[in-house]
Amino acid sequence: MTSSLQGPPFLRCDSVGDILVVILAADPRKFSDEAKQYAYNSAMKQMGLTVRLGLLIDLSRCEMLDSATMGILIQLSMEVIRTGARTAMCGASPAIRETLARLMLLEPTHRQLVWRQLATPVCAVTELQSPSHE
Fold first, then answer.
1. Cβ 46 vs Cβ 15: under 8 Å
2. For residue range 16-32, what is the model confidence (pLDDT) as tens digits?
3. Which CATH number goes with the domain that contains 62?
4. How far apart, in whole angstroms, are the C-alpha atoms of residue 98 and residue 79?
5. Full domain range(s) for residue 77
6. Is residue 72 part of a domain?
7. How far is CA 75 from CA 2, 43, 119, 120, 132, in A?
8. In the chain, how many domains are there?
């Protein structure tokens, strides 16, 4: 992966071709709302420059998500889906996967997100680059 944009340590955005990789690099609860807002704005800007195939959310370093971070991941994903691109997630712990699944139950059916869960960033990038991804 080539680093294309570095925000605060809350998250990092890298690109692999036309795929934006958002890596949560730390416990998001330790960062201010301002740091999260800056990171969100940076990721949105980078999506406009990079994303054609998809968004990969890498949670392999993240132990827990707070509500603001969940909101950021949902908004980034919805923006990507709106453009016709796809989303995937890797490295999410079982607790994070369960929390995100429960959160989606609160959304109307047409707005529910289901992130394709893959074991590693390499597997996820390969899947997003595949034309057969459904």
1. yes
2. 988 999 999 778 888 98
3. 3.30.750.24
4. 22
5. 2-128
6. yes
7. 24, 11, 23, 23, 25
8. 1
Residues 83-110: tens digit of each pLDDT: 888 999 999 999 888 888 888 787 777 6
Confidence of residue 111 (pLDDT cuts 50, 70, 90): low
**In residues, how long is the chain?**
134
Note the pLDDT tens digit of each residue in 51-70.
788 999 999 999 888 989 98
Residue 70 lies in a domain: yes
In a domain, 133, yes or no: no
pLDDT in the model for residue 72: 92
- Centre a 10 Å sphere on the Cβ of residue 55 and count the other Cβ atoms it contains: 28
Residue 101: both structure tokens together: 């699944």
Query: Which tokens go with 87?
Result: 């989303």
Provide DSSP, 22-42: EEE-S-GGGS-HHHHHHHHHH
**Residue 76 covered by a domain:** yes
